[in-house]
Write a structure and sequence with these properties.
Helices cover 25% and strands 43% of the residues. It has 177 residues and is α+β, with helices and mostly antiparallel strands. A six-stranded mixed beta sheet has the order 2-1-6-5-4-3.
Length: 177
Protein backbone atom coordinates (compact mmCIF):
# COMPACT_ATOMS: atom_id res chain seq x y z
CA UNK A 1 0.00 0.00 0.00
CA UNK A 2 1.30 3.45 -0.85
CA UNK A 3 1.48 6.05 1.93
CA UNK A 4 -2.12 7.24 1.89
CA UNK A 5 -3.60 4.23 0.06
CA UNK A 6 -4.97 6.32 -2.82
CA UNK A 7 -3.63 4.13 -5.64
CA UNK A 8 -4.77 0.99 -3.87
CA UNK A 9 -8.27 2.42 -3.30
CA UNK A 10 -8.48 3.37 -6.98
CA UNK A 11 -7.33 -0.12 -8.00
CA UNK A 12 -9.98 -1.74 -5.76
CA UNK A 13 -12.71 0.57 -7.08
CA UNK A 14 -11.64 -0.32 -10.64
CA UNK A 15 -12.16 -3.98 -9.76
CA UNK A 16 -15.68 -3.11 -8.59
CA UNK A 17 -16.32 -1.23 -11.85
CA UNK A 18 -15.17 -4.28 -13.83
CA UNK A 19 -17.57 -6.41 -11.80
CA UNK A 20 -20.56 -4.20 -12.65
CA UNK A 21 -19.63 -4.08 -16.34
CA UNK A 22 -19.04 -7.83 -16.50
CA UNK A 23 -22.39 -8.69 -14.91
CA UNK A 24 -24.41 -6.05 -16.76
CA UNK A 25 -22.94 -6.72 -20.20
CA UNK A 26 -22.64 -10.51 -19.81
CA UNK A 27 -18.83 -10.34 -20.23
CA UNK A 28 -17.85 -13.40 -18.26
CA UNK A 29 -14.17 -13.35 -19.26
CA UNK A 30 -14.02 -9.90 -17.64
CA UNK A 31 -15.71 -11.29 -14.54
CA UNK A 32 -12.76 -13.67 -14.11
CA UNK A 33 -10.50 -10.60 -13.64
CA UNK A 34 -12.51 -9.57 -10.57
CA UNK A 35 -11.84 -12.68 -8.48
CA UNK A 36 -8.66 -14.53 -7.68
CA UNK A 37 -8.67 -18.00 -9.25
CA UNK A 38 -9.52 -19.51 -5.86
CA UNK A 39 -11.98 -16.71 -5.03
CA UNK A 40 -15.32 -17.47 -3.38
CA UNK A 41 -18.69 -15.79 -3.94
CA UNK A 42 -21.55 -16.06 -1.44
CA UNK A 43 -24.39 -14.59 -3.46
CA UNK A 44 -27.15 -16.11 -1.31
CA UNK A 45 -28.61 -18.74 -3.66
CA UNK A 46 -25.16 -19.37 -5.12
CA UNK A 47 -22.12 -20.13 -2.96
CA UNK A 48 -18.85 -21.22 -4.53
CA UNK A 49 -16.02 -20.45 -6.91
CA UNK A 50 -15.93 -18.14 -9.91
CA UNK A 51 -16.49 -20.90 -12.52
CA UNK A 52 -19.68 -21.99 -10.78
CA UNK A 53 -20.73 -18.37 -10.33
CA UNK A 54 -20.40 -17.75 -14.05
CA UNK A 55 -22.38 -20.90 -14.85
CA UNK A 56 -25.09 -19.84 -12.37
CA UNK A 57 -25.29 -16.38 -13.99
CA UNK A 58 -25.45 -17.82 -17.52
CA UNK A 59 -28.33 -20.11 -16.54
CA UNK A 60 -30.14 -17.34 -14.70
CA UNK A 61 -29.80 -14.63 -17.33
CA UNK A 62 -30.27 -16.37 -20.65
CA UNK A 63 -31.79 -13.50 -22.63
CA UNK A 64 -30.25 -10.32 -23.99
CA UNK A 65 -32.03 -7.91 -21.63
CA UNK A 66 -29.37 -5.75 -19.99
CA UNK A 67 -29.09 -5.33 -16.25
CA UNK A 68 -27.69 -2.39 -14.39
CA UNK A 69 -25.68 -2.32 -11.20
CA UNK A 70 -25.21 1.14 -9.73
CA UNK A 71 -22.33 1.18 -7.26
CA UNK A 72 -22.51 3.76 -4.50
CA UNK A 73 -20.71 4.34 -1.23
CA UNK A 74 -17.56 2.31 -0.84
CA UNK A 75 -15.52 2.15 2.34
CA UNK A 76 -12.16 0.42 2.01
CA UNK A 77 -10.19 -0.49 5.13
CA UNK A 78 -6.65 -1.87 4.96
CA UNK A 79 -5.55 -4.57 7.41
CA UNK A 80 -2.06 -4.58 5.91
CA UNK A 81 -0.48 -3.62 2.55
CA UNK A 82 -1.95 -6.70 0.80
CA UNK A 83 -5.29 -7.21 2.59
CA UNK A 84 -8.36 -4.98 2.59
CA UNK A 85 -12.01 -5.10 3.54
CA UNK A 86 -14.36 -3.24 1.21
CA UNK A 87 -18.05 -2.58 1.75
CA UNK A 88 -19.68 -1.26 -1.43
CA UNK A 89 -23.35 -0.35 -1.68
CA UNK A 90 -25.26 -1.30 -4.84
CA UNK A 91 -28.62 -0.95 -6.51
CA UNK A 92 -29.26 -3.63 -9.11
CA UNK A 93 -32.04 -3.33 -11.66
CA UNK A 94 -33.31 -6.23 -13.75
CA UNK A 95 -35.67 -5.12 -16.50
CA UNK A 96 -38.37 -7.31 -17.99
CA UNK A 97 -36.89 -10.27 -19.83
CA UNK A 98 -36.54 -10.08 -23.61
CA UNK A 99 -39.36 -12.56 -24.08
CA UNK A 100 -41.71 -10.22 -22.24
CA UNK A 101 -40.60 -6.92 -23.75
CA UNK A 102 -38.17 -6.63 -26.66
CA UNK A 103 -35.32 -4.11 -26.72
CA UNK A 104 -36.68 -0.68 -27.52
CA UNK A 105 -40.15 -2.19 -27.54
CA UNK A 106 -43.26 -1.44 -25.62
CA UNK A 107 -45.32 -3.49 -23.20
CA UNK A 108 -45.29 -4.58 -19.59
CA UNK A 109 -43.24 -7.01 -17.61
CA UNK A 110 -41.82 -7.89 -14.22
CA UNK A 111 -39.07 -5.53 -13.04
CA UNK A 112 -36.81 -6.47 -10.12
CA UNK A 113 -34.86 -3.97 -8.00
CA UNK A 114 -32.41 -4.95 -5.31
CA UNK A 115 -30.52 -2.79 -2.83
CA UNK A 116 -27.61 -4.16 -0.88
CA UNK A 117 -23.89 -4.30 -0.21
CA UNK A 118 -20.89 -6.27 -1.35
CA UNK A 119 -18.71 -7.15 1.62
CA UNK A 120 -15.41 -8.13 0.05
CA UNK A 121 -12.10 -9.48 1.25
CA UNK A 122 -9.62 -8.03 -1.25
CA UNK A 123 -6.14 -9.48 -1.46
CA UNK A 124 -3.24 -8.16 -3.47
CA UNK A 125 -1.37 -11.03 -5.11
CA UNK A 126 1.33 -10.59 -7.72
CA UNK A 127 0.79 -6.81 -7.47
CA UNK A 128 -2.92 -7.10 -8.37
CA UNK A 129 -5.97 -6.49 -6.19
CA UNK A 130 -8.84 -8.96 -6.62
CA UNK A 131 -11.68 -10.36 -4.57
CA UNK A 132 -10.72 -13.40 -2.49
CA UNK A 133 -14.11 -13.69 -0.76
CA UNK A 134 -17.39 -11.91 -1.46
CA UNK A 135 -20.54 -11.91 0.59
CA UNK A 136 -23.50 -10.21 -1.08
CA UNK A 137 -25.82 -8.67 1.51
CA UNK A 138 -29.36 -7.91 0.32
CA UNK A 139 -30.98 -5.10 2.28
CA UNK A 140 -34.16 -4.78 0.19
CA UNK A 141 -35.60 -6.45 -2.91
CA UNK A 142 -38.72 -5.40 -4.79
CA UNK A 143 -40.48 -6.61 -7.88
CA UNK A 144 -43.28 -4.93 -9.75
CA UNK A 145 -45.07 -5.08 -13.04
CA UNK A 146 -44.10 -2.02 -15.03
CA UNK A 147 -45.05 -0.50 -18.34
CA UNK A 148 -42.04 -0.10 -20.58
CA UNK A 149 -41.97 2.95 -22.81
CA UNK A 150 -41.00 2.55 -26.45
CA UNK A 151 -37.45 3.43 -27.36
CA UNK A 152 -36.87 6.40 -29.62
CA UNK A 153 -33.79 4.93 -31.27
CA UNK A 154 -32.89 1.29 -30.72
CA UNK A 155 -29.20 2.05 -31.48
CA UNK A 156 -28.70 3.67 -28.07
CA UNK A 157 -30.32 0.95 -25.95
CA UNK A 158 -28.07 -1.17 -23.74
CA UNK A 159 -27.48 -4.75 -24.82
CA UNK A 160 -25.64 -7.84 -23.61
CA UNK A 161 -23.79 -8.52 -26.85
CA UNK A 162 -21.23 -7.01 -29.24
CA UNK A 163 -23.78 -4.45 -30.45
CA UNK A 164 -23.88 -2.66 -27.09
CA UNK A 165 -22.74 0.98 -27.56
CA UNK A 166 -19.81 0.36 -25.18
CA UNK A 167 -18.57 -2.59 -27.25
CA UNK A 168 -18.82 -0.50 -30.40
CA UNK A 169 -16.92 2.42 -28.81
CA UNK A 170 -14.21 0.09 -27.46
CA UNK A 171 -13.77 -1.41 -30.93
CA UNK A 172 -13.46 2.07 -32.45
CA UNK A 173 -11.00 3.35 -29.86
CA UNK A 174 -8.97 0.25 -29.00
CA UNK A 175 -9.56 -1.96 -32.03
CA UNK A 176 -11.21 -4.59 -29.79
CA UNK A 177 -14.14 -5.05 -27.43
Amino acid sequence: MNDDGTRDRIAIRDVMGRYARAIDRGQFALLRTVFHADGYDDHGPYKGGVDGFIQWLQERFTDEAPMQHFLGNSLIEFANPDLALAETYYVAARPPKGGEVRQGGQGSGLYVLSWGRYVDRFERRDSEWRVAYRRTVVDLRLQAVVNVLPGSDASNWGRRDAQDPLSIARAEIFGRD
